[in-house]
Amino acid sequence: MPAKIPATVVTGFLGAGKTTLIRHMLQNADGKKIALIINEFGDLGVDGDILKGCGDEVCTEDDIVELSNGCICCTVADDFIPTMEALLAREDKPDHIVIETSGLALPQPLVRAFNWPGISTKVTVDGVVTVVDGRAVHDGQFAHNVAAVDAQRAQDENLDHETPLSELFEDQVACADMIVVNKTDLLAASEAETLTSKLKSESRDGVQVVKATMGALPVDVLLGQGISAEDDLAARHEIHHHHHHDDDEDGHHHDHEHGHGHDEFESFIVTRGEIANVNAFAEQVADVIRANSILRLKGFVAIEGKPMRLTLQAVGPRVDTYFDQPFGDAPRETRLVVIGEAGLDHAAITTALQA
């Protein structure tokens, strides 16, 4: 049975920075062949033009499909499924599929569509990424230009025009496996920290909340989450009841001292000798990840008495291991790459992983 192709769903309101995030991903895809499905309506299909210059080795024009006749979640059977089937039937299959939903589509019905008989055996939802405009959400607005979001909603007769934006926002957050707080360069460091903590406390366990500027996320962090979201729909139910948060307790006395530089990401390598016990080591890795807010950890492990090297991949505290190939002439050592937001304590993490 060939492995299922992973698909990442990117959602978020108009203006949150979904296209910028995707453009950055394509420019840094590192040879990964990515197919893109963009769901926009009416005259808003500018994303396709922006993305068509994305470099042939990553995605050619054939790899970009625009669905412009209304919201993807309402036209699943007529529009989305045939598009997916056509993509999956190709000779040169993509390594990864990225679906950018329209800013007002709820991600839940789209994730549900991956259980459709024609495609459920061939593709899986790697993860749902919700992009939020950090400045707007901090100010209780949810979108930088609320009028533009409402105009977009008015154009599509399939959409629910009554639900307040705050509730749509909660549904997008409820479905997310990763929340990208974009535009953090427009927030003071303390404001960004407060907002990410608030979003983390309001989302399911295991959801990663990361800060970004101009959608610049490492591809390793964005893709390869391995969640299989379609198997876990009950946990991502649409909320549709009102929470009345006092969104802006500090009464708007923002004196915009902007955070310094970009909240960038960093990675470093930790090496150690052979490991005696795989399970104990996997638990140790999970503990280190939890204690240090590490986003990804991956590498190869040498196990005493085993000729094969063990591949280890962790997304947050979820650690997967499998033996992939013999070490051969390569040195029998354990090499792990640690990826996280800038400011990781290299010394403490190294000591804990080598313990």
TrEMBL record:
Biased composition (Basic and acidic residues): 250-261
Catalytic activity: GTP + H2O = GDP + phosphate + H(+)
Keywords tagged on the record: Chaperone, Hydrolase, Nucleotide-binding
Alphabetized CDD domains for the sequence: CobW-like (cd03112)
GO BP term, example: cobalamin biosynthetic process
Pfam families tied to this protein: cobW (PF02492), CobW_C (PF07683)
Domain CobW/HypB/UreG nucleotide-binding: 6-200
Chain intervals for the UniProt region annotation (Disordered): 240-261
InterPro entries tied to this protein: CobW, CobW-likC_sf, CobW-like_C, CobW/HypB/UreG_nucleotide-bd, P-loop_NTPase, Zinc-reg_GTPase_activator
Domain CobW C-terminal stretches: 265-355
Gene3D superfamilies on file: CobW-like, C-terminal domain, P-loop containing nucleotide triphosphate hydrolases
GO molecular function: hydrolase activity; nucleotide binding
Domain of life: Bacteria
Gene Ontology cellular-component annotations: cytoplasm
Function description: Zinc chaperone that directly transfers zinc cofactor to target proteins, thereby activating them. Zinc is transferred from the CXCC motif in the GTPase domain to the zinc binding site in target proteins in a process requiring GTP hydrolysis.
Family: Belongs to the SIMIBI class G3E GTPase family. ZNG1 subfamily.
NCBIfam families (alphabetical): CobW
Protein name: Cobalamin biosynthesis protein CobW
